[in-house]
Design brief:
37% of the residues lie in helices and 26% in strands. The chain has helices at 42-50, 74-79, 97-107, 115-129, 146-160, 176-191, 203-209, 229-237, 240-246, 266-271, and strands at 4-13, 16-26, 31-35, 55-64, 67-68, 82-85, 92-96, 139-140, 164-168, 195-199, 213-218, 221-226. Strand 1 (4-13) and strand 2 form a beta hairpin.
Length: 273
């Protein structure tokens, strides 16, 4: 199974409440898209689900396959099948990329992976994401470009085979061919009975992954849920209609076309020309 349940989740960051009662259920074989203005809680939600320590849960629960993981550490959640591809993957000098991957596999396995099997899977994954094999033997993300860091996140996802994946703006810094690779990688997760929660600023990427559910988060609350029609409406109209229909101020939102009303997609749009 790959069922993730978020129940009345309230989260503070540095003493300020960011999430104000999130309720969300993601079942296996489902891809959920999360949209909303910058600074309204999308990344906070994903990081909280993964267990990052600076996010203080003041109320609510996080259940994975019916088990309460709310108080579990990041590594424990990862062993149980959660995976987060970060918006800004950190550079870690001194830690070899391939050593990190092998240690991560062994941490969630009953017995160490054989060297032959590991090398075969690693070579296959690097080829599929079009990352030069020699970069796997460099320090983790050290000196990598933004796009290379994102490709490396997908390699981790392929190697670790999590059941529930969360992708936070994985599309930024990637060209169209790379976006297709990411979409294919999400499909792999779904095909092995997994699920996905995806944050993106790029309408075309959502068209590629074909979300089964779409949610809009504003001011720390999910104000609207539905199907892919929501993506199309936001891509066409921005978020002006949110204020009109729900009385919620979205003045922070950049209403440029094809950005789903958000900022930060110049590179993606340029690469798609």
């Amino acid at each position: 199974m790959a069922k993730l349940e978020i129940i009345d989740l309230h989260v503070n960051v540095a003493g300020k409440e960011i999430l104000k009662g999130i309720n969300l259920t993601i079942n296996e074989h489902e891809i959920h898209a999360l949209l909303g203005p910058n600074g309204n809680g999308k990344s906070t939600l994903l990081s909280t689900i993964m267990g990052q320590s600076k996010y203080e849960i003041t109320k609510g629960q996080i259940l994975l396959d019916g088990e309460d993981v709310t108080s579990m550490s990041v590594d424990t959640r990862a062993k149980k099948g959660l995976f987060l591809a970060m918006q800004y993957p950190p550079e870690i000098p001194g830690v070899i990329n391939s050593d990190f991957l092998k240690a991560a596999i062994n941490a969630k396995s009953e017995k160490p992976v054989s060297l032959y099997k590991f090398i075969v899977e690693l070579e296959k994954a690097t080829k599929e994401v079009n990352l030069p094999l020699d970069m796997i033997h460099r320090y983790l993300n050290d000196g990598f470009s933004g796009g290379e860091k994102k490709r490396n996140e997908i390699i981790q996802m392929k190697i670790l085979k999590p059941s529930t994946v969360m992708l936070d703006e994985i599309d930024s810094g990637l060209d169209v061919d790379a976006l297709k690779m990411v979409a294919s990688s999400i499909e792999e997760v779904i095909n092995r009975n997994g699920s996905a929660l995806v944050v993106s600023h790029y309408a075309k990427f959502y068209q590629m992954i074909k979300p089964t559910h779409v949610h809009v988060i504003v001011d720390g609350k999910i104000i609207l849920s539905g199907n892919e029609d929501i993506v199309l409406k936001i891509d066409k109209e921005g978020f002006d209609w949110v204020k009109a229909e729900y009385g919620i101020d979205t003045k922070k939102v950049d209403l440029r076309p094809s950005s789903i009303g958000l900022c930060g997609v110049k590179e993606s749009l340029k690469n798609d020309k």
